[in-house]
């Protein structure tokens, strides 16, 4: 394989993103330590390529390099920065990944093998970060189709079958996503976030099984006098198993918060005590969700599409096959 040094170094993005995707699948958390090394590597690669472009025999080489770098950083990186500030359906790690890609992968790499060259399908624009992003979006569009087919094969038919899956309630402590059900049935908008459900259980020092087995825990008078650390709701090895670190349920307060009788499950007391929204959870949505998961044996949840995972797949496809959208448009004779 013959390639420039910057292009060879850029291959380090593959194992880095693969590890991040693994962590995203397991915990929905991507370590922040991934980004500084990738950004530093990207700046170094840009410096080398910029130096070579400046000293190229024709001026077009530098203009093309500068234009592609500007498009990558301003468009893809700017999009990541925007979604970091305004996280509409975008996680912080997803936004940081776009910024890292925009700096590390502005220009198309080229890898020569015996008889063929990768990527197989480059674009005329040749902004590699844009190819990675478009590949991720194309691959992400296949996920609803997968859910639709798999749910139909299992006989799980519901209006939400293209965006969710039906799981036993006992599985919720180790699942990711949010409820797609309320007391009246399924709905297309997400309900209680499962991270918030784990936070609530940890705060009270109980398991979901405890809440289901003991209807008396709906009484706010059973809140612990000394609440536990709710953490951030990440799945741990102990989730779904019996816990023994709960506070005694003989107090009426949660720290300095008094839970009145009009606060079923102590939902308002929980949110007041943690001084946060727990992923946008309101007392009403927490109460609704707790009623649902304590009354039913199985519920619909939306696992969401881990964008970081599709971004990793888009990166791998970009390095090998190339641009999926450009190839599809080419097959249709549109480019």
Summarize the structure in words.
It is a multi-pass membrane protein. This is Peptidase A24. InterPro entries: Preflagellin_Peptidase, Prepilin_IV_endopep_pep. It is a single chain. The chain has 2 domains: about 5-140 and about 305-330; about 165-300, no CATH class. About 50% of the residues lie in helices and about 5% in strands. It contains 13 helices and 9 strands. The chain has a 3-stranded antiparallel beta sheet, with helices on one face. A two-stranded antiparallel ribbon has the order 1-2. A two-stranded antiparallel ribbon has the order 5-6. A hairpin with a 4-residue loop joins strand 1 (about 110) and strand 2 (about 115-120). Helix 3 (about 35-55) runs antiparallel to helix 4 and helix 4 (about 60-85) runs antiparallel to helix 5. The longest helix has 27 residues, at about 60-85. The protein is elongated, with a radius of gyration of 25 Å. The two termini are about 30 Å apart.
Counting DSSP E segments of at least 2 residues, the number of strands comes to: 9
Query: What percent strand?
Result: 5-15%
Count, helices: 13
Instruction: Estimate the global geometry from the Cα principal axes.
Output: elongated
Structural class: mainly alpha
Task: State the order of secondary-structure elements, H for helix, E for strand.
Answer: HHHHHEEHHEEEEHHEEHHEHH
Q: State the distance separating the first and last CA atoms.
A: 29 Å
Mean pLDDT: 88
**Number of domains as seen in the coordinates:** 2
Indicate the radius of gyration in whole angstroms.
25 Å
């Amino acid at each position: 394989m013959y390639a420039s040094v910057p292009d060879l170094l850029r291959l380090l993005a593959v194992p880095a993103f693969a590890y991040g995707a693994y962590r995203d699948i397991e915990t929905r958390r991507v370590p922040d330590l991934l980004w500084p090394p990738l950004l530093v590597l990207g700046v170094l690669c840009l410096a080398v390529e910029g130096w070579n472009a400046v000293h190229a025999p024709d001026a077009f080489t530098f203009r093309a390099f500068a234009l592609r770098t500007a498009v990558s950083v301003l468009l893809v990186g700017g999009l990541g920065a925007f979604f970091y500030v305004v996280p509409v359906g975008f996680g912080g790690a997803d936004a940081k990944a776009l910024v890292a890609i925009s700096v590390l992968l502005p220009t198309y790499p080229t890898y020569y093998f015996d008889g063929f060259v990768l990527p197989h399908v480059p674009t005329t624009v040749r902004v590699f970060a844009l190819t990675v992003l478009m590949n991720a979006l194309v691959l992400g569009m296949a996920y609803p189709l997968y859910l639709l087919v798999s749910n139909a094969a299992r006989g799980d038919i519901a209006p939400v079958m293209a965006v969710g899956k039906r799981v036993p309630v006992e599985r919720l402590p180790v699942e990711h996503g949010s409820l797609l059900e309320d007391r009246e049935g399924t709905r297309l908008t997400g309900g209680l976030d499962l991270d918030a459900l784990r936070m609530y259980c940890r705060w009270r020092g109980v398991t979901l099984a405890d809440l289901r087995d003991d209807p008396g825990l709906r009484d706010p008078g059973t809140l612990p006098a000394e609440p536990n650390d709710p953490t951030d709701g990440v799945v741990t090895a102990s989730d779904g198993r019996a816990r023994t670190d709960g506070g005694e349920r003989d107090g009426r307060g949660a720290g300095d918060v008094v839970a009145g009788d009009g606060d079923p499950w102590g939902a308002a007391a929980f949110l007041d005590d943690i001084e946060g929204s727990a992923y946008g959870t309101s007392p009403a949505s927490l109460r609704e969700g707790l009623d649902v998961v304590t009354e039913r044996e199985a519920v619909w949840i939306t696992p969401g599409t881990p964008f970081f995972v599709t971004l990793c797949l888009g990166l791998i496809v970009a390095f090998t096959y190339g641009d999926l959208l450009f190839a599809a448009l080419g097959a249709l004779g549109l480019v």
